[in-house]
From TrEMBL:
Alphabetized SUPFAM superfamilies for the sequence: Homeodomain-like, Tetracyclin repressor-like, C-terminal domain
Name of the protein in its database record: Transcriptional regulator, TetR family
One Gene Ontology MF term: DNA-binding transcription factor activity
Taxonomy, superkingdom: Bacteria
PROSITE patterns named in the record: HTH_TETR_2
Location of the HTH tetR-type domain: 11-71
Keyword match Membrane: no
Length: 196
């Protein structure tokens, strides 16, 4: 159950702190995030930040939860290849974005060191996969993919190669990499690789 977010000053403080946490993560990684610095960056009192979040892990989790809430909804084209390409392009453009790509890389690194961050990041990726699962399920119902195809696995197969190149080689995903990821996931799905 998602709680409604407060409005007014509370919403402004939350937004400023979330942005400041993201900026600090991008610049310094998890080890360099300091709540006093976050308060300064956000233009709010340290007491407010410490009272509301208490720990860096809580503030980072809030950042990730905000990412879940503000993620772009899936495009529904009615064509599996087009839907998967739209998903891959969203991933590619996010990872290639100077701030967002660095932020996600920092969050993935932070998740290795902090279980609360890891749990928040899992919620983010689970929400993103759930958002895109219907395009695969609809393709199964249209007979484009074998019955029993796991929609989540197909969606993950599209984005995994884009993340892999960024995380292992520091290479921003290209449009060619996007297209290869879509073609590979689609071919594997049609061949029944993701049937459970």
């Amino acid at each position: 159950m998602t709680m409604a977010r407060p409005g007014g000053r509370t919403a402004r403080v939350r937004a400023a702190v979330v942005r400041a946490v993201g900026d600090a993560l991008v610049e310094h990684g998890l080890a360099g995030v300091d709540l006093a610095d976050v308060a300064r960056r956000a233009g709010v009192g340290k007491t407010t930040v410490y009272r509301r979040w208490g720990t860096v892990a809580a503030a980072v989790a809030e950042l990730v939860d905000d990412m879940v809430e503000t993620s772009v909804p899936r495009a529904a084209t009615g064509d599996l290849e087009s839907d998967l390409r739209a998903n891959a392009e969203l991933v590619r453009s996010t990872l290639a974005d100077p701030r967002q790509g660095r932020l996600l890389t920092a969050l993935i690194g932070a998740a290795r060191a902090d279980e609360r961050t890891a749990a928040a990041l899992r919620r983010f990726y689970d929400a993103r996969v759930r958002e895109w699962e219907p395009c695969v399920a609809e393709a199964v119902s249209r007979g484009e993919l074998p019955a029993g195809t796991d929609p989540a696995e197909v969606v993950r197969a599209v984005s995994a190669p884009l993340y892999y190149r960024l995380l292992t080689h520091g290479e921003l995903p290209t449009e060619a990499a996007r297209d290869r990821a879509v073609a590979a996931a689609l071919a594997a799905a049609r061949a029944g690789v993701y049937v459970v």
